[in-house]
Structures are given as C-alpha cells and as structure tokens.
Amino acid sequence: MILSKSCEYAIRATVYVALKSRKNEKTGIIEVAGAIGSPMHFTGKILQTLVHKKILLSAKGPTGGFYVENGQDLFLIDIVRAIDGNDLFTSCVLGLEKCSQTQPCPMHEQVKPIRDMLMAEFSKKPVTELVEEFHKHKYFLK
Amino acid sequence: MILSKSCEYAIRATVYVALKSRKNEKTGIIEVAGAIGSPMHFTGKILQTLVHKKILLSAKGPTGGFYVENGQDLFLIDIVRAIDGNDLFTSCVLGLEKCSQTQPCPMHEQVKPIRDMLMAEFSKKPVTELVEEFHKHKYFLK
DNA sequence: ATAATAAAAGATATATTTGTCTTTTATTAT
DNA sequence: ATAATAAAAGACAAATATATCTTTTATTAT
User: Fold this and answer.
1) Distance (Å, rounded) from C-alpha B97 to C-alpha A41?
2) Per-residue pLDDT of chain A (142 residues; tens, 9 = 90+)
3) CA–CA min distance B61, chain A (Å)
4) How far is CA B3 from each of CA A39, A43, B97, rounded to the nearest angstrom?
5) Residue A87: what are its φ and ψ, rounded to 5°?
6) Residues of chain A neighbouring B117 (CB-CB closer than 8 A)
7) Does the distance separating the beta carbons of B140 and A98 come in below 8 Å?
C-alpha cells in the first residue's frame, strides 16, 4: 500500500467536500461517507483531523457541515502529509535508520528518484483539478 | 511506508543469508537477527515464510541453518511478492475497487508509470548485487 | 542409541490501524 | 428559551501487523 486507508478516504472525502463547496454547499459526515463508500464514524474522525490540519473547515449545528475555502489552493500532498506524514517520501525503503544521501542503503539511489516523482505528482495535483476531472470524465469516488 | 516492516526485514535477512552462502556457510536465526537488527523470533517467522516461498533453503539440526542455492538468480521483487504480495504495484492509490486502465481514478495516469518504475527497479535488482555492493561500499544491514 | 543443535510449529502478547457507538458541545431556527 | 441539528470528543471493539515464548520435529555428532 502506498497510502494508508485513512489517507485514501481523506483524499476522496476532501474531493467530495470541495465538489459541494463549489456549489456553496456544506456537507455532513453521513453524506460524505455515502458518497465515497467509507465507514461513517471512521470518516467522521478523518474529517475531524482534516479540520485540525486546516485542510477543511467545519460548522456545527443546522446548516453546518464541512466545506473548503473556495479560493485556497489545496494540493493532494497537503492531505497526504496531514494524514500519513512525510515518511512515504523520506524513510528508507529497507528500513535502515541511518540511510541517507551520504550513507545510502543498497536501494537508495534507485528508489530516491521514484519517490521524488511521486511527491512531485502529489504536489502538483490541486484538489480542484480532481473536482473538474470528476465532472468531465465521470470519475468516481467509491 | 512503501514496504511492510516484515518485508524490510525479509530483504535484509535474505541479503545476509546470501552473503554467508557465498562463503558456503549456513546461518541461524540468532545470527541473522543480530546482523540485521531485527527481533529474533519475528525474524524466525519471516525466514520460515521465505523457505515456504522457495526464496531460501533451510536445514535442521547441528550444522543446519538458512542458505540460498548459490546458482539461482533471485531478485528483490521475488522477496517483495513473497511477503507483501503484488498490491503495491497494482492496487488503486485512492483505494477505489474498480479503478483500472479503462476506468481510471483521478490519479491513475500519474501514478501508474511511477509504480511501474518501482517494480522495474525491484525486478532488475538481484540479491547478489546487494551482496557485492555490501562488500564494496561497506553498506550496512541495520 | 543419546545428547545437542537448530528450524518448524503453535500459542500467546503487544501495538497499530481501522471501525463503531455514545455523549458532549456549539449553532441554528423556531 | 427551546428543540433540532451536526460536528467534536471520548470510550470501546475488531482486525491486522508486529513481537515473544514454548513445544515439537528433524538432523547431526558423539
């Protein structure tokens, strides 16, 4: 697995929330979980985390729900870092504590460019683009 | 994490076993765990699995231990598949069940070439090369 | 044959991730 | 003010991954 299940849910949930936000609608846990096919309460926890990490905004009470600031540029890398941290892009592929550029593990040189590319792809992918592609190509979220 | 901890141990353990095999020596659980800095009993389980999957050979009793057939060409991908399976290279990065070439998820096109490259690197890396590099460059296994 | 050795196997324990349920808090509309 | 709504928070449960310990089985050397 490249991303944790939590992180997969987080990305899909954020895209759905952004989707609704573009129509100036807030959306709730039940709706999000239904839309992306994830366990409801668990999704609630993840959304909560995303709010803490400033990826999403939320409002309590009637007319409340989750939403994104429509102007902000939000990239997939932000969500990945918020949920899984940065380890995917930095920690040694063979699990060696002291692996580094100066003291590389046997796979370091082979893997570094690949994970850099992965980071680049997540970094240059705005959530808005996923939203647009969702509409254009009938992408699905579950 | 790209690979599970078990898989990291498995690769490092296999390299160490191959290292000893080149000197026609068998090695035991305690020695392997010491050499790669892994929990002993857990390492035993992993070595056991590697034997089942024909990655390693083993012999019981005095003078016994783990070893590799010196002629066989064994690649890192074989170890990865034996322990973690093939999901790393195939399962959808956003966790969508039906994601495929014909019905791709929003990240499919971006991620596919990257994971193909990763698979290629593991596929073309023989364990013997890690052994040689270990000797040449003073690579470490823990 | 016997004792010693080392892997195999099985049972159990701990940690982490994933998932569920209940209670509390804040907000809105009436 | 009150009731309804929805997120926040906390406690709990299940599943999986990681780790440990004990017993069994096969092999070797004596």
Assistant:
1) 21
2) 899 999 999 999 999 999 999 999 999 999 999 999 999 999 999 999 999 999 999 999 999 999 999 989 999 999 999 999 999 999 999 999 999 999 999 899 999 999 999 999 999 999 999 999 888 877 789 8
3) 31
4) 26, 25, 21
5) -55, -40
6) 114, 117
7) yes
Q: Which of A125, A128, A95 is nearest to A111 (CA)?
A: A95
Q: Radius of gyration over alpha carbons of chain A, in Å?
A: 17
CB pairs under 8 A between A and B: 92
Q: Chain C: nucleotides under 7 Å from a protein CB? A: 4-10, 17-22, 25-29
Pairing of strands B65-67, B57-59: antiparallel
The token duo for A50 is 């995303």
Computed over its alpha carbons, how large is the radius of gyration of chain B? 17
Going from the N-terminus, what domains does chain A have, and what CATH number goes with each?
A: 5-137 (1.10.10.10)
- Residue range B87-108, pLDDT digits in tens: 999 999 999 999 999 999 989 9
